Amino acid sequence: MALYRSDAFVLRTYKLGEADQIIVFLTEDYGKVRAVARRSRSAKRQTASYYQPMTLLHAIFLAARPRTCTASTAWI
Questions:
Q1: Cα 53 from chain centroid?
Q2: What is the rounded CA–CA span in Å between residue 73 and residue 47?
Q3: Which intervals hold domain DNA replication/recombination mediator RecO N-terminal (predicted)?
Q4: Residues facing 5 on adjacent strands
Q5: Digit-coded pLDDT (tens) for 3-24
Q6: For residue 45, how many other CB atoms are within 10 A of its CB?
Q7: Distance (Å, rounded) from C-alpha 40 to C-alpha 17?
């Protein structure tokens, strides 16, 4: 598993369970990437608004290949 970093534009989000989301990013370096953001829909998370569509952010994701991810962290 490798760690990838890139500026990203959020295209779409999908609900996954009670507190998780699947986020589709468009990155400068890796193109279109799908990632799972764990516990991102929890009411107590301050970062819940980071993954709204049309948001520009700096994404750091962990993946075996850059197109499909298992974990995601983002900063605006």
A1: 11
A2: 9
A3: 1-61
A4: 60
A5: 888 899 999 998 888 888 888 9
A6: 13
A7: 11
CA 31 to chain centre: 13
Tokens of 70: 């298992």
Among residues 42, 40, 53, which one has the least CA distance to residue 13?
A: 53
Query: CA 33 → CA 43, 53, 56, distances in Å?
Result: 25, 14, 14
- Give CA–CA dist 69/65, Å, rounded: 7
Nearest to 51 by CA among 34, 29, 28: 34
Distance between CA atoms of residues 6 and 49, nearest Å:
19
pTM, rounded to two decimals: 0.75
Cβ neighbours for 17, distance < 8 A, ≥ 6 positions apart: none
Residue 70 has pLDDT above 60, yes or no: no
Domain boundaries, the chain: 2-75
